Amino acid sequence: GAVVSQHPSRVICKSGTSVKIECRSLDFQATTMFWYRQFPKKSLMLMATSNEGSKATYEQGVEKDKFLINHASLTLSTLTVTSAHPEDSSFYICSASSNYGYTFGSGTRLTVV
Amino acid sequence: AQKVTQAQTEISVVEKEDVTLDCVYETRDTTYYLFWYKQPPSGELVFLIRRNSFDEQNEISGRYSWNFQKSTSSFNFTITASQVVDSAVYFCALSPNTGFQKLVFGTGTRLLVSP
Questions:
Q1: Is there a contact between A71 and A52 (Cβ–Cβ < 8 Å)?
Q2: Residues near A76 by Cβ (< 8 Å), separated by ≥ 6?
């Protein structure tokens, strides 16, 4: 079945540094990738939608300069949290859309200290 | 606008009890998909079911069953003879139209099954 590999699964970084999260579709072409953020005991909040080769569409209230999304190929999308701060600590999860439905990555738990 | 409501924030049951998780949705689309996902403590989302808005047949998969009623805009999920391994957060979600656009998630129901 369709698999999306998300890395890293956990990352701890210092305030002010940038962190890159990768999502790769292993056996299918992900024409659209969705990036979600989840706070503890909360639901998944859509941050942005990216289509291969074009700029991402960000949801209202999401800082596009802080959360850089790149979808350069049909199998790779990245989310970079720039100048991370403790309030960016969260669980980030990607989801690839294809003709078969949605495939989620396993998530990245980001802790900014 | 699309909206998914899961009114039950947390449910606690004892093993072997049956439990129903409620999901009510709002959409103006005539065609849409409904989903249920399970999120265990490890965090990954486990796909449970996808239902097309045209198909109102109830579905059973092992101990899991789903009741889809368009008349009440509900898509409820029942676990029969619950087990400790069923403990997780369960999310109901709506895809606004066929073509797999962005998913709208409910707030989730945390299910705790005690031995």
A1: yes
A2: A22, A23, A24, A25
Is the bond preceding residue A8 a cis peptide, omega within 30 degrees? yes
A93 interfacial to chain B (CB closer than 8 Å) = yes
Chain A neighbors of B92, CB-CB under 8 A: none
B 57-96 near A (Cβ less than 8 A): 91, 95
Q: What span, in angstroms and rounded, lies between the C-alpha atoms of B99 and B42?
A: 29
Strand extents, DSSP E, A4-100: 4-7, 10-13, 19-25, 32-38, 44-51, 57-58, 67-73, 76-81, 90-98
Q: How far is B108 from chain A (nearest CA, A)?
A: 6
Per-residue pLDDT 10s for chain B (115 aa) are: 889 999 999 999 999 999 999 999 999 988 999 999 999 999 999 999 999 998 888 889 999 999 999 999 999 999 999 999 999 999 999 997 766 788 999 999 999 999 9
* CB proximity list for A21: less than 8 A, separation 6 or greater: A6, A7, A8, A11, A78, A79, A80, A81, A92, A94, A108, A110
